[in-house]
Every structure is written in structure tokens, then in C-alpha cells.
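From the methods appendix. Each design record in this collection lists the discretized structure first, followed by the designed amino acid sequence. Records were kept in a plain field format so they could be parsed without special tools. The example shown here is representative of the layout used throughout.

RECORD:
C-ALPHA CELLS (430 positions):
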């Protein structure tokens, strides 16, 4: 091992193992929480602006598609470059690009020259920046946080998701009352600047890279290497497949909630808001539980249990009588509670087990695969629900999630995933 590699490894170990790892990690975490908050406010504001301006469901659907396509198609490319570049610099540039896009839109709002196509471009730029930033951040956490704390840290991220699910739209509505649209865009610019400032005063370590990496192989070879890593690792491949099935089920389930409230429960928009609030409350509670508890000693058992609890929540929602809306609230609360139990320990396992120098590619490829499952679920969910009834999709989803959770306990390659390490240098790249 060269001297430079030794120093990089020593630096990484000192950052992860010393008691003061929090002083290096939490400025990054706080900055990204602020940036996410600004992004949620902007997202709410732009969707509301488009709804008021166009009154078109097609325009809103196209906006969602514009934001989703870069994540699915460009995510793997972003991950490959993240593994090549300085991840700290990638996050700074990504946040800066998003801030510039918001600033430009703020100016157009100020001079009253905003066009819908410009908003699409801004959403596209924000999605690209988010793809690079997310890949770089996820791949950096394993080098900054001790392995024993990874589940708790990912639990904290789930707490943030729960809080933003509850507070993001409400805060966006409040800010829209207090500020004009260009002011809302400048709020996002301010939070991005804060995130960049915090990034510039910490040290995000780089993974040890083989000398061969200096030759800069082709981007296509990098992508194949990332896919090979997933395919060759049997336990990881099974987990990714199960997660894709879950996304395929949950995406249309969430999309069908408004219709279920209005048609099945004969409810109002207020009841829909209450249902979504309980979902966020469940995510918040689940995130707090996993961050304080840390999960079972074998993390994969927590994820498996989470699948079962998720399925039970879906079954409760699917079995709720039309005149007992409170049971539906209990169902979505359990669903929200289960999400951090599934996601946080699984991410901790991957951050601890996947070779740091390939994490950008592996995580982004996984994100793209999960993203591909969402539109497939939407294509299937609507016709199935129209044909067999709304509750059928929730019941079917619940049964499948419970089966997934139970079956994983009987698959040795999944149960033992935390004790496995795949050495890609010993595997043939397909």
C-alpha cells in the first residue's frame, strides 16, 4: 500500500473512530436539513403556482415527470462520477447549481416574466443537482460515521422526512401568505447558501482508491462495475428486488389515497390532509424509535420486521369499514411507522458493507431501479383498482409485504448479508 493510501486510510479511521466524529458530521447533516426544507417549500410553491396558472392536471403530471426522469436516467451516471470526484466538492457544486436556478426564477418572478416551460427547466436542473448531491452524501456518510452509529444516523434522516412530510406543505402555505413568489425562491437560495457554508468548514473524507482508478476507465465500465456489484452479491440483489416490489405497490397506494377518501369514505379534503398528516406522524415516530433504539443487533432483522409491520398497516387500511375513518388513520400511522424500520437499517447495512469507493454507483443504481418500479406500479394500480375496487390494491399490497417480510427470514444470503463483503477485484465484470 502506498504512503498516500495509508494516510488516507488513517485519516478516514480517525474521523470515524474518534469520539468527536459528530463535530464533523452534524454540520453536514444540519446544512442538508435546511436545504431540504427550502426545497420542500419551493416544491409546494411551484406546484401551487402551476395549479393556479394552468388549472391543468397534465401540466402538473408533466412537472412530476420532469423531476423524476433525471433521477431514474441520470442517477447511475451521477453515481459513477461521484465515485471519481471529490464528494465534498460535488455537494457544494450541486447545492450551488440549485441555488442559481432558484435565484434565476426569483428574478423572473420579480419582473413578472415567468413561463411554465421555464419552471420545467428549473425543476429539471434541481432534479439533476439533487441526483448528484444525494449520491455524494449517501456515499460519504459511511466514511464519517462509526459503523455502530449508522442505523441511528439513518433513523435521524427518517425523522427529518417525517417532519418535512408534516410541516413542509404547511410551512410553504404560510410563506406564500407572507412573501411573493420571488421571495419564496430567495428563501431556497438562502438555505442553499447556509448548506454550502457548512460544507466548506468540514472535512468529508475520500475513499481509498486503487491505483488503477487513476487511469480513469470509461464511464460505461464504471456503470457495469456498479451493476456487477449488485448482481454478484446475491443477498443484496434479493433485497433490491424486494424493495422494487414494495415501491411498485406503495406508489399507486399513495396515489389512490385521495380517491379512497372521496369515493370510499365520502370524505373531504380536510380528511385527506389528516390522513397524510398521520402518515407523516408515523414516519416521525418510527424515525425517533430507530434513532434511539438502533434496531436489533442484526440490523437485517429490523428491516424484515419492518416489512411485516408495513404489510399489517396496509391490511388495516384495506379492511377499514367505510363508516370508520379512524381505522384508516390507524392504518396509515402504522404504515408511516414501518417505513423507517425498513429503510434506516437497510441503508446502514449498505453503508457499512458496500466498498466505499463504489458506493456512489451502487446507491444511485439502486435508486434508479426503485424509481423504475414507481411508474410500473402506477400503470398497474389504476386498472386493478377500477376493476376490483380501491381496497383490493391495499389488501393485495399488505399480503405481499407480509409475505416478503416473513420469507426473508428463510433466505440465508439475506439473513447473513451483514457478514458478507463482496470483493469486486475477485469478480468478473459482466
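DESIGN:
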Amino acid at each position: 500500500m502506498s504512503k498516500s493510501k495509508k494516510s488516507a486510510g488513517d485519516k478516514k479511521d480517525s474521523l470515524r473512530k474518534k469520539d468527536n466524529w459528530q463535530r464533523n458530521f452534524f454540520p453536514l447533516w444540519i446544512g442538508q436539513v435546511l436545504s431540504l426544507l427550502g426545497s420542500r417549500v419551493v416544491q409546494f410553491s411551484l406546484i401551487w403556482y402551476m395549479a393556479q396558472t394552468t388549472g391543468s392536471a397534465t401540466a402538473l403530471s408533466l412537472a412530476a415527470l420532469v423531476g423524476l426522469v433525471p433521477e431514474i436516467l441520470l442517477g447511475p451516471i451521477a453515481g459513477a462520477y461521484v465515485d471519481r470526484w471529490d464528494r465534498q466538492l460535488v455537494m457544494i457544486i450541486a447545492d450551488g447549481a440549485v441555488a442559481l436556478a432558484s435565484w434565476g426564477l426569483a428574478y423572473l418572478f420579480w419582473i413578472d416574466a415567468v413561463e411554465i416551460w421555464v419552471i420545467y427547466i428549473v425543476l429539471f436542473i434541481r432534479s439533476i443537482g439533487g441526483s448528484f448531491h444525494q449520491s455524494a452524501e449517501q456515499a460519504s456518510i459511511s466514511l464519517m460515521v462509526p459503523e455502530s452509529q449508522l442505523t441511528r444516523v439513518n433513523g435521524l434522516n427518517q425523522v427529518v422526512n417525517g417532519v418535512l412530510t408534516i410541516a413542509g406543505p404547511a410551512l410553504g402555505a404560510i410563506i406564500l401568505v407572507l412573501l411573493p413568489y420571488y421571495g419564496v425562491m430567495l428563501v431556497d437560495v438562502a438555505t442553499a447558501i447556509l448548506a454550502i457554508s457548512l460544507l466548506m468548514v468540514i472535512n468529508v473524507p475520500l475513499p481509498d482508491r486503487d491505483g488503477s482508478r487513476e487511469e480513469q476507465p470509461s464511464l460505461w465500465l464504471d456503470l457495469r462495475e456498479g451493476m456487477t456489484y449488485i448482481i454478484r452479491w446475491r443477498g443484496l440483489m434479493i433485497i433490491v428486488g424486494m424493495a422494487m416490489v414494495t415501491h411498485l405497490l406503495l406508489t399507486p397506494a399513495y396515489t389512490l389515497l385521495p380517491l379512497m377518501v372521496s369515493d370510499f369514505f365520502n370524505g373531504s379534503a380536510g380528511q385527506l390532509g389528516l390522513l397524510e398528516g398521520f402518515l407523516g406522524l408515523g414516519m416521525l415516530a418510527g424515525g425517533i424509535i430507530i434513532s434511539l433504539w438502533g434496531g436489533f443487533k442484526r440490523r437485517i432483522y429490523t428491516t424484515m420486521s419492518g416489512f411485516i409491520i408495513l404489510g399489517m398497516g396496509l391490511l388495516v387500511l384495506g379492511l377499514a369499514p367505510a363508516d370508520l375513518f379512524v381505522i384508516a388513520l390507524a392504518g396509515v400511522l402504522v404504515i408511516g411507522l414501518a417505513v423507517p424500520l425498513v429503510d434506516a437499517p437497510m441503508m446502514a447495512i449498505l453503508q457499512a458493507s458496500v466498498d466505499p469507493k463504489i458506493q456512489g454507483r451502487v446507491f444511485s443504481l439502486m435508486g434508479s431501479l426503485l424509481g423504475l418500479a414507481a411508474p410500473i406500479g402506477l400503470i398497474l394500480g389504476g386498472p386493478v383498482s377500477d376493476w376490483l375496487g380501491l381496497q383490493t390494491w391495499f389488501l393485495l399490497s399488505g399480503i405481499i409485504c407480509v409475505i416478503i417480510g416473513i420469507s426473508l427470514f428463510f433466505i440465508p444470503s439475506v439473513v447473513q448479508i451483514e457478514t458478507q463483503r463482496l470483493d469486486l477485484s475477485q469478480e468478473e465484470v459482466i
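APPENDIX NOTE: Residues 221-426 form a domain with the Growth Hormone; Chain: A; fold (CATH 1.20.1250.20).
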